[in-house]
Structure formats: C-alpha cells, structure tokens
Amino acid sequence: MKKTTFKLLTLTLLLAGFSACKDKAKNSTSTSEESGEVVVNVKKENFLTASLVEPITIVSKEMSDGTTADCYKIVASGTPSEHEMGPWCPDNISDDASKGGVWAVDGELYDIDGEFIKNLGNLLGDDTWMLYDKETGEITKTKTKDECNDAANPNVGEEYKNYCVECLPSYVTGMSHTYYIPVTPKKAEKAYKFLKGHPGGGPNDGERPERPKDGERPAGPPPGENSTAPSNRGIAFNGVVFNAPAPVDAILSAYTIAPFDDAGGHINLHEGYHYHAATGVSKKIAQDDNHAPMIGYAMDGYPIYANTDADGNEATDLDESRGHYDEIRGYHYHVDKAGSNNFIDGLRGVYAL
C-alpha cells in the first residue's frame, strides 16, 4: 500500500509540474525561429476577471492563414469593471462637461457640454443644426430604448433630425461576447488591411452599415486572403472591444450625433458597449522605460499600446498597420489619436476565424 501511494503521489506531482510548465510556457517570451525576433505571448492575467462571464480557456481554432493554433477563448460581458459608462448627451445647454461625453470632429475630440451643443452649427458650418429648445435650453435626445433603436438605425427617419442619440446600459443587460485571440502571435505573410465598407464601417463610408445580429461576429476573409481584417480591432483588458470607426459622416448627415463617453465608448442595441477611441480611462499597464502604456490586445494577439509615451511623444516609425518592433515588447501597435475615430489600420498577424 505504501509503494502504491508513493507511485500515485509521484505521478500526481509529475503531472502537476508538467501542467505548470505548460501554463508558464504559454505566458513566456520566446524568439521566432524564422525571423529571430522576440515574440511575447498573450497574458490572460492582464484581463480583469470582474469583466468576464467565465474563466479564460484555451481552444484550438482555424486561423486566417489556414493553419490551426491555440487561442484564448474570452467571454466578456462588455461591461467595464474599472470605470463607469456614460454620460453621453447633456440635458441642457447650461450643463458643463461633466454632464456629457465627447465627440470627434475633423480629428479633434470635443467635450459634449451645453456650449458645444449650442454652437454645433457654427462648428460644422451648417445652421440647420439645432439640437435644443431655444426657449428652455433643453437638449433634444433619445430617451427610450425604442428611440435609441430607431435613431441608430442605418435608415434613420426624418423625425430624428437634430437629435443627440443616447443608448443606456439598461437597454442591453445580459449581453455577452466571445472572442478568440491566439496565445502566441504569428506574423502573416503580409498585413491584413481594414478597408472601407467592411462590416463595422469606416471613417468615410458614407452610409451606416447593416448591423450584425446579436452575438454574431463579422466573418473574416477566406484563408490565405489578406484583403481585409475582421471588423473588431482588438480587446481592452476589461473585455470591451476596440471597434471599427463609427460611421461619423453618416451620423452627421442625418443631423444626429452619437457621443462617446469620456472613456471613448458608447452603446448600440446589437453590440452593447464598445470603444471608438482610446482616451486613457480603461485599464492600462505602465512600462518601465518611458514607453507608452499597454491598453489591450489586437485580434491577432499582438499587444496594443497608447498613442504617446510618458513624455507625450508619438512613435514615428510605425508601419502600415500602426505597428513596429522593439526587443522588449516584440512587435506591437500604437493606437491612433483619440480624435481620429480609429485605433489601428490593420492586423500584422494571423487571427482566428
């Protein structure tokens, strides 16, 4: 009996040790045999567990280059656990910036306060804009779930002209999203580009794209094709997705605005809460060498960092995807300016289909 117990104990310890080594390997830094470059694996510990619906697991997935790879399965609630959502539209033109969110105009991010709403026509050079009652100062905005749905519709009706569109968290309770990110990033033969007209829209698409159905993710291109990347750019550490650019031109052409909150996010009924700008509010991981902080992962597993470093300087050697390489972080991205309504311009690595 003692020998049997000893053997079982030894086997258990060996298995535990193997499992621990395997888990450690998944979170290590390695060197690519092909390029000799440093490759940094995704660290699941960076994600905030309070924002997840279930623990992160590893599954095998087909990749965009036709291979299969281990991927982290991330099931997120879409609700940030480290910051509040909103506000978006202020109530009155007397309200200050604390009562509203932000909005991008010509590459600049503006606070949505009462003065912004009051002077919107001057800013945009069109006196048709009138989002408030001249007598009371009350701002015209969506106030129900149905109004949110109608005003955010690709074919928004004339009745929502001169509206501030505000969709509230209470409209999308119980929603969850599943994402797959490769544990070990792998460079594709050439970069996948985000093109205008892809699901999710582009900054100048000219019309609002059709929304995916609840729980659906836009499909990627057939294996081996590098024409387009998936609509979602990446995921913040709180499980909120970095989405494609909001169709700002279409929104403005309907004489509506759909503000982001101070964290760069807003809500629609199909996708829930999602980001269109990186404003530094969500969780970030500071670097020891003055480098910009890390804010999440792209869909190909490469890390995403803020736009500027600790001194406020932007990287000047970014490639067509807004990425570059260093020996500490390996290949990684830097997001665009917050007012650009954009994160990154493509995926340099393969991603899960």
Keywords:
single chain; 353 residues; alpha+beta; three-stranded antiparallel beta sheet; 19 strands; 23% strand; disordered N terminus
Report on this model:
By secondary structure, this protein is α+β, with helices and mostly antiparallel strands. The chain is 14% helix and 23% strand. It contains 5 helices and 19 strands. The chain has helices spanning 2-26, 114-118, 120-124, 145-151, 248-253; strands spanning 29-31, 38-40, 57-62, 68-76, 102-105, 108-111, 163-164, 177-182, 187-193, 234-236, 241-242, 256-257, 265-268, 272-275, 294-298, 303-305, 323-326, 330-334, 346-349. Strands 11-10-15-16-18-17 form a 6-stranded mixed beta sheet, with no helix packed on it. Strands 3-4-8 form a 3-stranded antiparallel beta sheet, with no helix packed on it. Strands 1-2 form a two-stranded antiparallel ribbon. The longest helix is centred in the first third of the chain and has 25 residues, at 2-26. The protein is elongated, with a radius of gyration of 22 Å.
Question: Please, what is the oligomeric state?
Answer: single chain
State the helix count.
5
Q: Report the structural category.
A: alpha+beta
Helix percent band: 10-25%
What global shape is seen?
Answer: elongated
State the total count of DSSP E strands. Answer: 19
Strand order of the largest sheet: 11-10-15-16-18-17
Spatial gap, N to C terminus: 51 Å
Structural Rg: 22 Å
Q: Give the integer mean of the pLDDT values.
A: 86
H/E element order: HEEEEEEHHHEEEEEHEEEEEEEE
Strand content: 15-25%
SSE layout and pairing:
Blueprint: H1 2-26, E1 29-31, E2 38-40, E3 57-62, E4 68-76, E5 102-105, E6 108-111, H2 114-118, H3 120-124, H4 145-151, E7 163-164, E8 177-182, E9 187-193, E10 234-236, E11 241-242, H5 248-253, E12 256-257, E13 265-268, E14 272-275, E15 294-298, E16 303-305, E17 323-326, E18 330-334, E19 346-349
Parallel strand pairs: 7-12, 16-18
Antiparallel strand pairs: 1-2, 3-4, 4-8, 5-6, 9-19, 10-11, 10-15, 13-14, 15-16, 17-18
